[in-house]
Amino acid sequence: MTTAQTPATGCPYLIDATGADIHGEAAALRALGPASRVLLPDNIPAWSVTDPDLIRRLLVHPDISKDARQHWPAYINGEIPETWVLRPWVDVINALSAYGPEHTRLKRPLAAAFSPRRVRALTPQIDAITHSLLDDLQTAGPGDVVDLRARFAWRLPLLVANIVLGVPEHLHDPFRDAIGLLFATNLPPEEAKAAPGRVYNLIGQLIEYKRRTPGDDVTSRLIASYAEGTLTEQELADSLLLLIGAGHETTVNLLDQGVVNLATHRSQLGLATTGEISWAQVTEEVLRHQAPIATIPARFAVREVVDKPTGITFAQGDVLVINFAAAGRDSGSHPRNADGFDITRTTTGDHLAFGHGKHLCVGAELARAEGRIAFAALFARFPSLRLAVEPEELTHLQSFISNGHDRLPVVLGPAAR
């Protein structure tokens, strides 16, 4: 029986907390084997799982848990500092961190809110929000530099999520400013400790507002579940945290990375704008090539788990993080230039950007719909849109979780008639 390889020094691979080179790091980890030993911030030992087949097996394995309270000895014994930058990801009690029947219970009300029927019903509103944001962008001069992440990629998913959740307008910008800190993996300890408090304060305001003015929205339904006794107060708040945080960030990065890829691959953009390749296929290739969530923490081995195809043994209590960025560019799944962006490839949909099996993201179809609508409308309105800097000059978010840029400067060019 074998274990995963480690670097030549014999030491675990130290994950770069700044996220400066997501795909360079992913390639290095893939070269070490299907899963390799790493050190997370504060030298927390873990495994980074990069092989897509192994990821699929582990995501549905009954002995792989997401519940630190039950299955991470270091957490249970109080050995994980409160200032650990990833602490919010393991402290929460929601579908992201639940195990077994608890996961099913906490995911059920969320899945109902994002059913295909509800996503279809939202399409006209997504379209209207998109065109409203494009109208606002058009007030800029055709030669002006515009931060498209701030003015479009960030705002579209936020406004859609606010409709779904029933978030009042006075909380829109505060949520936008606070949520990003939960994904920053390079914060100083005291800032990391304080970041969740800002978000929970806003969630508390949202809950109180919706108790006074309930509506046909997810927040009101979750509040009703709490009133019926099927959710605890923390589960209510943490379920909203999951929807506002992780769900929104995924779509922002999808739009951000999609614009970069399309603006720098003009011939492929032409295939999409003429209808030769569907925007749905474009969206899938963006998800494969640039997984919006590069690495997601954390899972825990309930007991010793031996993966027979690879011969890797995960000991009881081992921490696992899933590297979706590495999996999307696996050459076994994508033999034709896996690192390249290619909307014509036949394997565009073969990715794990939204998870797998029972751990598939409940908002996946909504994110896909936003991507299709946004890409089509943006490049129809601004067909000459180009980056205002060279692609290598774009700066990555200070995160190895969130795969996006801190700014997306573009020149829109003249709007189409």
Could you give the topology of this structure?
Blueprint: E1 13-14, H1 22-31, E2 35-40, E3 44-49, H2 52-59, E4 64-65, H3 68-71, H4 73-76, H5 87-91, H6 101-113, H7 116-137, E5 145-147, H8 148-153, H9 155-165, H10 172-179, H11 189-212, H12 218-228, H13 233-244, H14 246-263, H15 266-273, H16 279-289, E6 295-301, E7 305-307, E8 312-314, E9 319-323, H17 324-328, H18 364-381, E10 386-387, E11 409-411
Parallel strand pairs: 1-2, 3-9
Antiparallel strand pairs: 2-3, 4-6, 5-11, 6-9, 7-8, 10-11
Keywords: Heme, Iron, Metal-binding, Monooxygenase, Oxidoreductase
InterPro entries: Cyt_P450 (IPR001128), Cyt_P450_B (IPR002397), Cyt_P450_CS (IPR017972), Cyt_P450_sf (IPR036396)
Family: Belongs to the cytochrome P450 family.
Order of helices and strands: EHEEHEHHHHHEHHHHHHHHHEEEEHHEE
The CATH superfamily bears the name Cytochrome P450
- Helix coverage percent of residues? 40-55%
CATH class: Mainly Alpha
Count of discrete structural domains: 1
Strand content: 5-15%
Radius of gyration computed on alpha carbons: 21 Å
Mean pLDDT: 93
Q: From the coordinates shown, what is the CATH architecture? A: Orthogonal Bundle
Main-sheet strand order equals 1-2-3-9-6-4
Q: Which stretches of 5+ consecutive residues score pLDDT under 50?
A: 1-9
Largest sheet: 6 strands, mixed
The shape, in one word, is globular
Identify the notable features of this structure and list them briefly.
single chain, 417 residues, alpha+beta, Cytochrome p450, 6-stranded mixed sheet, 3-stranded antiparallel sheet, 10% strand, globular, oxidoreductase
